[in-house]
Amino acid sequence: MTEPTLDELTRRLERLERHGRHWKRTAVTVLLGAVALVVMGQTPPHRVPKSLEAEEFVLRDSRGQVRASLGTAQDSNSTVLQFHGETGKPRTRITVASDGTSSFEVMDTGDHVRLVLGVRDNGVPRIWLGNETGKIIWRAP
Q1: Are residues 6 and 63 in the same domain?
Q2: Can you give the pTM of this predicted structure?
């Protein structure tokens, strides 16, 4: 058997070092990937808030038109839920006033109240119908 020459030993050593660098890079890449997975797994899940607070909530359709709103009336401190028509005008309103009265109102396209169902603060119910100008034409009691 012949003795390896210096050039052959140098080539073999370079190839061995190349393989060592390759395995070292592979090991570092795998280690970094494992660390990234562990860190990503530690991120807390997205939590839904237990409450959401605002003075008014507005629901808009895809065109940006107001379709519903929930808020408080500043002048009377009443809670008001309104549903709006295609034009953006209120068509149905539910109100609970600070004095204890509550009502359900239906408006026409001219923004006139045509029907009111309600309960006064003393517990007495009320119903009234309005005409096209908003004038009461029938009520009970």
Answers
A1: no
A2: 0.61
**Strand, helix or coil for residue 107:** strand
Residues 23 and 76 in one domain: no
Same domain, 36 and 97: no
- b/e 75-90 (16+ beta carbons within 10 angstroms → b): eeebebebebbeeeeb
Mark whether 62 and 106 lie in a shared domain.
yes
The domain in which residue 62 lies consists of 56-140
CATH number at residue 73: 3.90.930.1
Whether the CB-CB separation of 134 and 126 falls below 8 Å is answered with: no
Q: Determine the 3-state secondary structure of 114 from DSSP.
A: strand
Over the stretch 68-94, which tens digit does the pLDDT of each residue have?
999 988 777 899 999 999 888 999 999
Amino acid at 98: S
Q: 132 exposed, middle or buried (CB, 10 Å; 0-12, 13-18, 19+)?
A: exposed
